[in-house]
Amino acid sequence: MKIEIAQNCGFCTGVKNAVQLAYDTLKKERGVAVLGDLVHNKVVMDELEAEGLVFVDSLDKVGNMPLLLRAHGTDVKLMHKAKEMGLNIIDGTCPLVREIHKYARELEDEGRQVVVIGDREHDEVIGIVSRLHDPCIIESPEDIDLCKLKQRTGVVIQSTQRIENVQHILPLLLTRSRDCRIINTICEPTRRNQTEILSLAKNNDCVIVIGDPASANSKRLFEVSRSLNDHTYMVAGKEEINPAWLKGCASLGITAGASTPVKLIEEIVTYIKLLNGDKKK
Ligand code: SF4
């Protein structure tokens, strides 16, 4: 069986930096607090927890530890509260997410109502809208009537959005807004992953997407691939691989979400090679 591994799969630059920042800080501090998941991947989180990262669900539980802010950004009200409490903040926000915050404010300064295309429950979107006065979140074309749009609008997009979803929403927005400025803020790593998954799904008999169920971008890669290739499967670890999937599969494409560590990808590739070798015997 031929195995093709997507070139840019696994940790994106933002996640890589945030994880590195956590390890660097843990070398100097006895404990580091993070609100919620630093990365949407259980393997990575378990390893960090073993090194001293403490996951807390409120600022009151941070205590004397430094507070690490996650790659996809934080609600600005929460940041202000943390500062007021005198907490030592270590900002792991990805520079590309910060750029979205900057663009969104710039659009507002131009007198536009900002429309954020993204998942309303996602921390990145919560972080973006928390910096704006009268934002509107649109997740899907069905949401278009949820917002009373002004005539002057500006659009930013959650960094990991599927381009197809955005392409369905934008024409509807344009019919409701006279003067609309669109800034494509889907980040470069996401765009590369979305392009790669198309060829991976088309050029291989089956595809395995490695990612945690909590990882939105892993799920998106899976959905795109499944829409093109029925033999697409998503796994969080090698134990979830069903050897029957690989029967009759002459070529296998492998990719992974932006929160999947390279170690896990290598482990799964080795496991599949072993399975494949066993079959040949
Ligand atoms: S997906 Fe893109 S914007 Fe989000 S953390 Fe990764 S590199 Fe940054």
In short:
With about 280 residues, the chain is an alpha/beta fold. The protein has nine helices and twelve strands. It has three domains: about 100 residues, Cobalt-precorrin-4 Transmethylase, domain 1 (3-Layer(aba) Sandwich), CATH 3.40.1010.20; about 80 residues, Rossmann fold (3-Layer(aba) Sandwich); about 90 residues, 4-hydroxy-3-methylbut-2-enyl diphosphate reductase, catalytic domain (Cobalt-precorrin-4 Transmethylase, domain 1, 3-Layer(aba) Sandwich), CATH 3.40.1010.
List the helices and strands and how they pair.
Layout: E1 2-5, H1 13-28, E2 32-35, H2 42-51, E3 53-56, E4 67-69, H3 76-84, E5 89-91, H4 95-109, E6 113-117, H5 123-129, E7 136-138, E8 152-157, H6 163-176, E9 179-182, H7 188-203, E10 206-210, H8 216-228, E11 232-235, E12 251-256, H9 262-280
Parallel strand pairs: 1-12, 2-3, 2-4, 4-5, 6-7, 6-8, 8-9, 10-11, 10-12
Helix pairs in contact: 7-8
Q: Distance between termini?
A: 14 Å
Residue runs with pLDDT of under 50 for 5 or more positions: none
When the domains are counted, the total is 3
Multimerization state: single chain
Provide the CATH top-level class of the largest domain: Alpha Beta
The level of helicity is: 40-55%
The overall pLDDT, averaged over residues, is 93
Report the biggest beta sheet as strand number plus sense, adding barrel if it closes: 4 strands, parallel
Spell out the helices and strands N to C. EHEHEEHEHEHEEHEHEHEEH
Return the CATH topology of the largest domain: Cobalt-precorrin-4 Transmethylase, domain 1
Main structural class: alpha/beta
| SS elements, strand count | 12
Describe the global form.
flat
CATH architecture of the largest domain: 3-Layer(aba) Sandwich
Rg of Cα set: 21 Å
Bound molecules: iron/sulfur cluster
